[in-house]
Write a structure and sequence with these properties.
Radius of gyration: 22 Å
Helix content: 10-25%
Number of strands: 28
CATH topology of the largest domain: Neuraminidase
Largest sheet: 4 strands, antiparallel
Strand content: 25-35%
Number of helices: 5
Structural class: alpha+beta
Shape: globular
Distance between the termini: 44 Å
CATH class of the largest domain: Mainly Beta
CATH superfamily of the largest domain: Fucose-specific lectin
Number of domains: 2
Strand order of the largest sheet: 5-6-7-8
Length: 412
């Protein structure tokens, strides 16, 4: 059987990957492709790929010792399952069944022996395939590895999720970067998102281990504990303030649509769906003027989608083209300016911008490849700070001061 060959195509200056695997192709990229399409995300996608490799080597045509065990995830072809999902030797059907039977990737114990085995030397155990699965899932990662915020001119702060599951941060106050410091307070299951709605004030959000959104804040005297804001999300939330005293959270729900909730100074709203269709990543929200929000997200086809709020309701999604992987990052460095950054499927960074008359074309930023979606902030007009994870898991940083971009440099 031939191995999976991924041919690069070009779209608007970025490369995109074909979405269909041939029926005789196999391996972790096949499980990644069909698992992602079925709904597996983030760590659940990694484990799904590993289990698929242990069960069938991710062969669409494979049957187990029991001939009723079929396909990528060896789903048993009970008549009622076939009636619900169709032929389980069809990869997309097998993936949808595995997604439902594993409780969206949260509970594999009932149907897959490979999920109970921790022997890293045994290829029939999911643990054997975890490194392979991590590599295959990387293209479908939706979250930024870090979040950056400025709560006053000359200040910037970077937050990330550490290997211990806690949030860590480091900061710059005009002279040098601090070391990394843990915020403590308990584990989270996504990288954090940070925003400031007025000077000396930071609000921090992350996905909790139960899929809810967690929130904590800094008012100059120390950090609050985490509080749950409910919800059921995948990936990292995005948050924006379009005027002092206002906060709005956007997150991709388990239905792959964007949901939001907001704070207008006294209490939080309930979570509400925004409609408009399904999306393929965590969103990025930015405000370039009071009362105005711009929302960006990767579309299901890999293009960049954009919608906006000008006080009278939300626009539909418009495609800005491109072929991106992971979540975009948007910023405004002065009124009327928008800039959006995204990692292409070649792992290089691309951007396009709006200066009041229309959108530029996509252009590559050069400087080398990165291993995560970017994050970006502006701490004063005509000034941008850009962050991404390097291939050694360090945080990389580059900046723009009006006369061109610096090179990437590591900040640890």
């Amino acid at each position: 059987m031939k191995r999976l060959v991924l041919a690069l195509l070009t779209l608007a200056g970025l490369v995109v990957w074909p979405q269909a695997a041939g029926a005789d192709e196999y391996g972790a990229p096949v499980c990644a492709e069909y698992g992602y399409s079925a709904g597996f995300r983030d760590d659940a996608l990694v484990k799904a790929i590993a289990i698929g490799m242990a069960e069938s080597h991710c062969k669409t045509w494979e049957r187990g010792p029991n001939p009723d065990d079929q396909g990528l995830w060896q789903v048993r072809a009970y008549p009622e399952r076939v009636a619900k999902y169709g032929d389980l030797l069809v990869a997309s059907n097998n993936a949808r069944a595995a997604y439902d039977l594993s409780a969206q990737g949260t509970n594999w114990q009932s149907n897959w022996a490979a999920s109970n085995c921790e022997d890293r030397g045994n290829p029939r155990c999911y643990a054997y395939w975890m490194a392979t699965a991590q590599d295959a899932a990387q293209r479908y990662r939706n979250d930024t590895a870090q979040s950056a915020v400025s709560m006053r001119d000359g200040h910037q702060e970077v937050f990330t999720r550490g290997a211990d599951g806690q949030v860590w941060h480091k900061w710059w106050y005009g002279g040098a970067w601090s070391g990394w410091d843990s915020l403590g307070g308990g584990q989270v299951s996504s990288p954090p998102a940070a925003v400031s709605m007025h000077d000396n004030h930071i609000e921090l959000f992350a996905r909790g281990n139960g899929g809810d959104v967690l929130h904590r804040f800094w008012y100059g005297q120390g950090w609050s504990p985490w509080y749950s804001l409910g919800g059921s999300i995948t990936g990292t939330p995005s948050v924006v303030s379009m005027r002092p005293g206002h906060l709005e959270i956007f997150a991709r729900g388990t239905d792959n649509q964007i949901w939001h909730k907001w704070w207008y100074g006294s209490t939080w709203s309930e979570w509400a769906p925004m409609g408009g269709g399904t999306v393929g990543s965590t969103p990025s929200a930015v405000s370039m003027t009071d009362g105005h929000i711009e929302l960006f997200v990767r579309g299901p086809g890999g293009d960049l989608l954009h919608r906006f709020y000008y006080g009278n309701g939300w626009s539909p999604y418009y495609s800005l083209g491109g072929g991106i992987t992971g979540a975009p990052a948007a910023v405004s460095m002065y009124n009327g300016h928008l800039e959006v950054f995204a990692r292409g499927t070649d792992s290089n960074l691309y951007h396009r911008y709006w200066y009041g008359q229309g959108w530029s074309e996509w252009s590559g930023m050069g400087g080398g490849t990165i291993a995560s979606s970017p994050s970006v902030l502006s701490m004063k007009p005509n000034h941008l700070e850009l962050f991404a994870r390097g291939h050694d898991n360090s945080v990389l940083h580059r900046f723009y001061y009006g006369a061109g971009w610096s090179d990437w440099s590591g900040i640890g």
